[in-house]
């Protein structure tokens, strides 16, 4: 008669099935009976956890349908959506980030969208502060916060908290800018990394190439504290240690629960209901490929937004906005077109499209790897009927005795692919539905020629 036990917001992994019997029904109330008919297993929270305010978190790989699910949930639960997407925070980056439409934002309030301009930086720390403040505001107004997005680090910090790293003073920030300015102008990334290593941060060598924002921030931390970022405790790691040392025997539940309850500083602030939408990898890849095509249709499309970024004086891969998938590839493609006087072959266009699709599929794979290690998430099969998924999450939110476990009919295994699936993915080939032959991209090529060809003609005329 023991269900999975949630202890102060942290779930202990071992559970026994609660049988659905007449005796059970006699011992419980009407609400429990209704839930039990639909779901045979529960996450039972402690009394302390059950008093916490609930926050729903919906994540999943790109193209899985998390935005659509969040929108429908918000309508049913009187909720508001907090977007956890590191690209949707930028104004003007609408198509490539699959930003909710204006009509969708009129139906349901969306927060954390269009916060900064593309030439500005927006950090995970900024997101934590803004999202937590927004969550508190939504709850205070009696509504339901629904956090939806696929940026893993945003969600990790939002749920578990951010490291207690001090913000650099203006003097130190100016000093760091002065030290790195010439290196960044010369694009001497290796020298900048070595400067940071010598300052006391060996972890700088693991940074992604040309991630100047993070390099700046790490040097600020070293100069402010005398320690590298790795010296500061990351709240998520504390929870991960608790979960990894989980109980394997029911007799250990009480002692372990007591131990966790004593760790007030490591407790979660809210009662999070976290779900990760996923589906068959091949179906997901196909959906991603189609989605990339759709972003290039019409006149207000991804290439138009990429051209706007170039007109702002930004270069691909020069900051977080221009480093994002889709925009970087589109900007690089347009730069090549501009260098050729606006000329592009169909092969060039299809090369760009193929790279965009490949990078998007790889990103989805990385997202699934990331969230596979996030134990707080329950995985849901995104290919199941939306109505059933909505009903389950609503029931779990309204359940007074804890969180309902995802039923087998909706559950998505989060195991890695087997050998057969691996072979299928290795042989996967993109099959476009819009852009197939040269005639399908003529309009795109003509627009590019019209934009960048005018400059070439002007130069010839002047000479």
Automatic annotation (TrEMBL):
Organism: Capsicum baccatum
Any one of the GO BP annotations: tRNA modification
GO molecular function, one term: tRNA dimethylallyltransferase activity
Keyword Magnesium: yes
Family that this chain belongs to: Belongs to the IPP transferase family.
Catalysed reaction equations from the record: adenosine(37) in tRNA + dimethylallyl diphosphate = N(6)-dimethylallyladenosine(37) in tRNA + diphosphate
EC code: 2.5.1.75
Keywords in alphabetical order: ATP-binding, Cytokinin biosynthesis, Magnesium, Nucleotide-binding, Transferase, tRNA processing
Entries under Gene3D superfamilies matching the protein: 1.10.20.140, P-loop containing nucleotide triphosphate hydrolases (3.40.50.300)
Protein name stated in the entry: tRNA dimethylallyltransferase
The protein's required cofactors: Mg(2+)
Uppermost EC category: transferase
Lineage start: Eukaryota, Viridiplantae, Streptophyta, Embryophyta, Tracheophyta
């Amino acid at each position: 008669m023991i269900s999975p036990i949630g202890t102060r917001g942290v779930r202990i992994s071992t559970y026994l099935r609660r049988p659905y019997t007449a005796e059970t029904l006699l011992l419980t109330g009407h609400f429990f009976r209704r839930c039990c008919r639909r779901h045979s297993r529960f996450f039972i929270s402690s009394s302390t956890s059950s008093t916490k305010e609930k926050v729903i978190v919906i994540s999943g790989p790109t193209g899985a349908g998390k935005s659509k699910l969040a929108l429908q949930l918000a309508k049913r639960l009187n909720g508001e959506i907090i977007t956890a997407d590191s690209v949707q925070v930028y104004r003007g980056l609408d198509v490539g980030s699959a930003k909710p439409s204006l009509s969708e934002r009129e139906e349901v309030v969306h927060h954390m969208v269009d916060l900064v301009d593309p030439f500005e930086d927006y950090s995970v720390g900024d997101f934590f502060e803004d999202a937590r403040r927004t969550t508190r505001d939504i709850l205070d107004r009696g509504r339901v916060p629904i956090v939806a997005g696929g940026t893993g680090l945003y969600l990790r910090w939002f749920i578990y908290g951010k490291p207690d790293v001090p913000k650099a003073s203006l003097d130190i920030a100016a000093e760091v800018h002065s030290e790195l300015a010439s290196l960044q102008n010369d694009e001497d990334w290796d020298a900048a990394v070595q400067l940071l290593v010598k300052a006391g941060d060996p972890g700088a060598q693991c940074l992604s190439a040309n991630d100047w924002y993070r390099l700046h921030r790490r040097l600020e931390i070293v100069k402010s504290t005398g320690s590298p970022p790795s010296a500061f405790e990351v709240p998520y790691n504390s929870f991960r240690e608790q979960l990894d040392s989980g109980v394997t025997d029911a007799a250990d539940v009480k002692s372990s629960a007591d131990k966790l309850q004593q760790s007030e500083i490591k407790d979660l602030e809210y009662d999070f209901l976290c779900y990760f939408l996923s589906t068959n990898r091949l179906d997901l890849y196909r959906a991603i490929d189609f989605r990339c095509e759709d972003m290039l249709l019409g006149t207000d499309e991804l290439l138009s937004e990429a051209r706007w970024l170039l007109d702002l004086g930004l270069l691909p891969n020069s900051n977080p906005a221009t480093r994002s998938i889709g925009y970087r590839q589109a900007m690089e493609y347009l730069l090549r077109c501009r260098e050729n006087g606006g000329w592009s072959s169909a092969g060039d266009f299809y090369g760009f499209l193929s790279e965009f699709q490949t990078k998007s599929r790889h990103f989805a794979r990385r997202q699934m790897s990331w969230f596979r290690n996030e134990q707080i998430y329950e995985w849901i099969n995104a290919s199941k009927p939306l109505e059933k998924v909505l009903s389950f999450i609503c029931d779990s939110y309204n359940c007074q005795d804890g969180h309902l476990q995802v039923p087998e009919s909706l559950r998505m295994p989060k195991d890695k692919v087997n050998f057969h699936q691996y072979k299928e993915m290795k042989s996967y080939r993109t099959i476009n539905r819009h852009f197939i032959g040269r005639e399908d991209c003529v309009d795109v090529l003509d627009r590019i020629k019209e934009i960048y060809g005018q400059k070439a003609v002007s130069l010839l005329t002047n000479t």
